[in-house]
Design goal:
Chain lengths: 181, 225
């Protein structure tokens, strides 16, 4: 086999492997990113889908720059965060992305998420938590990140995050109980 | 706490992209990836499956047909796999270089022709004489190879023993062909030649012998009756 042929084959194999890697990356992260966006755009399905598509397209275009040494979750989270920030800036809205409001209503009249009563109650309680605690609970239990992934995204130690999240859940429980009364 | 965790998890599970969106986006991204990085599209599953299956079948039947053609006495001239058999035999003949190897090859070929002739006799008797001629030729070739360079007496004796057995089979098959010709009336061309006084001395002797055997047979029958 000539050198050119073997090199072409090598490049082809690498590309195929990268494509496969991207598909795996997509499958691992799609749900989390969707939830991340969904709760920040007033639970609007259509807007969420548009934004998630744009986020992954951006990730694809920069996938060759992606450093495997960095956490994949942190990388896509950063892209999603920046993309949402741009989206709100274009909408001329001043929104703190970390201070997500779960009870924010859908705004453009398109199909919105119809939450059940108990879910609405949970959103109300979540809204009452301090932003830092809300972020931890959201990342851990709604978006489904592991403590290790959270540590690479928030840049804190995972043990500390574990304790903080536990405390946040305790606060949520108190809020939930007081809401029932 | 447990109830709360379960409630949050349940809510999390209820918030997920639809299957259509998930699949559609993956397809879009896959196409975009190919455009972006120039990666050739993966062949569809069915095409890959069909090509692998076809290759397996060709290999399986190719090898199977080759072995069958080479081994089976049913594969003779006129059979669709005959060219495979003759090709394989030619290759083997070409690879037999030493006199001993050539003697071995021609002995085996003689045996093969005899087996083929025995197989052909009940179904296509007209094809047996040419097969017998080929067997006789292989016999001659074996003798030539032995004379050329097989000096070891033990080996020579082994070959001569085998050839004696093959010769006996040859004679038996020739006799059976002759009987078959008498029974089936295949001697009509011979009768025409008798009428035209075209027979050689050998043929006349053979004819005389056949007549004598027939007379003996009829005579035996008549006496029994």
């Amino acid at each position: 086999m000539s050198d050119v042929t073997s090199q072409t084959r090598l490049v082809y194999t690498e590309l195929r492997m990268d494509k496969h890697a991207f598909e795996q990356f997509y499958k691992v992260n799609i749900d989390r990113i969707y939830r991340y966006v969904f709760f920040r755009v007033g639970r609007n399905v259509a807007v969420s889908e548009d934004l998630v598509s744009e986020i992954f397209m951006k990730a694809l275009k920069n996938f060759h720059k992606f450093d495997p040494a960095i956490s994949q979750s942190a990388w896509i989270y950063r892209i999603a965060h920046n993309h949402l920030a741009n989206y709100f800036r274009d909408q001329k809205k001043d929104v703190d992305l970390e201070d997500v409001s779960f009870t924010l209503a859908g705004e453009d009249g398109r199909k919105t998420f119809e939450a059940r009563e108990e879910e609405m109650k949970l959103y109300e309680v979540l809204d009452r938590l301090p932003p830092e605690d809300r972020k931890l609970v959201t990342m851990k239990y709604l978006e489904g990140y592991s403590y290790k992934e959270m540590a690479s995204i928030i840049e804190k130690k995972s043990d500390a995050l574990k304790v903080a999240t536990h405390r946040a859940m305790k606060k949520l429980k108190v809020c939930f109980s007081s809401n029932d009364k | 706490m447990f109830f709360l965790k379960r409630q949050v998890k349940k809510t999390s599970q209820s918030v997920a992209p639809s299957k259509e969106f998930r699949g559609g986006l993956l397809s879009t991204l896959s196409l975009a990836y190919d455009q972006e990085y120039g990666c050739p599209q993966r062949r569809p599953f069915l095409v890959r499956f069909a090509s692998v299956s076809l290759a397996s079948l060709v290999l399986f039947f190719g090898m199977g047909a080759g072995v069958y053609a080479y081994e089976s006495p049913q594969v003779t001239e006129g059979h669709p796999l005959y060219f495979v058999k003759s090709g394989l035999e030619s290759i083997r003949g070409g690879l037999s270089r030493s006199p001993e190897a050539r003697a071995q090859f021609h002995t085996e070929m003689m045996e093969r022709r005899l087996t083929e002739g025995e197989f052909q006799l009940p179904q296509r008797p007209e094809r047996v004489p040419p097969t017998l001629d080929e067997a006789a030729e292989q016999f001659e070739q074996t003798i030539s190879a032995l004379e050329e360079g097989v000096t070891d007496e033990t080996v020579r004796e082994k070959f001569i023993d085998t050839l004696s057995l093959h010769r006996a089979r040859y004679l038996e098959l020739s006799a059976r062909v002759q009987e078959d010709e008498e029974e089936t009336g295949a001697l009509e061309p011979l009768r025409l030649r008798v009428d035209g006084h075209e027979l050689s001395e050998d043929e006349l002797i053979r004819l005389f012998e056949m007549g004598r055997r027939a007379r003996n047979q009829f005579g035996g029958h008549n006496q029994a009756e």
